[in-house]
Design a protein that fits this description.
Elements (H helix, E strand, L loop, with lengths): L1 H25 L11 E9 L8 E2 L2 H6 L8 E2 L7 E7 L2 E8 L10 E9 L2 E10 L9 E9 L4 E7 L4 E4 L1
Parallel strand pairs: 1-9
Antiparallel strand pairs: 1-6, 2-3, 4-5, 4-7, 7-8, 9-10
Length: about 170
C-alpha cells in the first residue's frame, strides 16, 4: 500500500510538471514582430585591411631578433575599423564605426542589428569602408526591394565576393 501511494504521488507531480510546461509553452503567444510590420536584419563579420604597411627588416634588425623570430618582412597585426552606413529611402537607419575584435585588434569587425520597418517598396543604400581612405567608399550597394508585412529581410556582406547579399 505504501508503494502505491508513493507511485501515485510521483505520477501526480510528473503530470503537474508536464501541464506547467505545456501551458507556458503556448501562453503567452510570442511574435517576433507585429504582423503589420517587417524586419531587416543587418549582419556581417568582415576583417578590414591591416593598419599600416609591411616593411622589410634590415640586417641589423634581423640580428637583434631571436633566431626563431627572424622573418625578412614585418607586418602589423592590427586592423583598421570598418565604417558602415545603411540608408533606407534616404533616411539613415544605421551609421557605425566597427572596432576589430581580438586581443590585438586583429579579428573581424562584427555587427548584428534588427530594424523594424514599415512594409512596402524601399530603396536601400549601403556604404562600407575597410581601408583608411578619407573620401569615397570601398563598397557601395543600392537596391530597391518590396517587403511584405511580417517578412524578414537579411542583409549580409560577403567580403570574398565583394558584395552585399539581400536574402
Amino acid at each position: 500500500m505504501k508503494k502505491f501511494i508513493q507511485y501515485t504521488a510521483q505520477a501526480l507531480v510528473y503530470a503537474g510538471f508536464a501541464w506547467f510546461i505545456g501551458y507556458f509553452s503556448n501562453i503567452p503567444q510570442y511574435t517576433r514582430i507585429p504582423e503589420d510590420l517587417a524586419l531587416v536584419k543587418f549582419s556581417f563579420a568582415h576583417g578590414a585591411k591591416p593598419k599600416g604597411e609591411c616593411h622589410t627588416l634590415t640586417r641589423e634588425e634581423l640580428l637583434a631578433l631571436a633566431p626563431n623570430m627572424r622573418k625578412p618582412r614585418s607586418c602589423p597585426r592590427e586592423r583598421l575599423p570598418v565604417k558602415v552606413e545603411l540608408k533606407m529611402d534616404g533616411e539613415t537607419l544605421l551609421k557605425e564605426t566597427l572596432i576589430p575584435t581580438g586581443l590585438h585588434g586583429d579579428g573581424p569587425s562584427v555587427i548584428y542589428k534588427r530594424l523594424v520597418i514599415q512594409p512596402g517598396e524601399h530603396q536601400f543604400h549601403i556604404t562600407l569602408n575597410d581601408t583608411d581612405r578619407e573620401e569615397g567608399y570601398d563598397y557601395i550597394s543600392q537596391k530597391t526591394l518590396t517587403i511584405a508585412p511580417g517578412q524578414s529581410l537579411a542583409i549580409d556582406f560577403k567580403g570574398s565576393g565583394i558584395e552585399f547579399v539581400y536574402e
